[in-house]
Structure formats: structure tokens, C-alpha cells
Task: structure prediction
Amino acid sequence: MGDITYLPLQNGDWAYLAAFQDVHTKYVVGWQVLSSMPEESVVTALRRALLSRKPAAGLIVHSDRGSQYCGNGYRPLLVRFPVR
Result:
């Protein structure tokens, strides 16, 4: 499952944590923290998750339909790996 969490910083700014969690183990298996929320953050987090876990064919990747999860970098990554 993928999601973006807003993290308040002590100086009043925000950081954004894009993370993918294995819903079976509850472990975060891929993540990226940036000062903005570009599509690149979820692409990096998903790439880290897929490379660390090497999932079997048929893996289901769930996220909301935010713009970061619908972009030209994210969707082709799902096609390259055997996920639904």
C-alpha cells in the first residue's frame, strides 16, 4: 500500500514521506522523503520496495488516485514489474 504523509518540521516547513507498506508484515518496504511531493518521490519509494522485496507475479499495489500515482514515471514502473 502506498501513501504520502505530511511531516511538520521544527522550523515550520513540511517534509513529505512517500512510503510503501507490506500489508501482510506491516513493514515499510520502500520510502522517500522530500521537501515537496513530486511524482519522483513515489517512483523512488516504489522502486526501493520492489527491489528490496522482489515480489512474486500477481502482487497488488494499492494507493489513492493522487496525481503522483497516475504519472508517466509511476505507471510504466508497474508494467515493468509483475504487479496488478
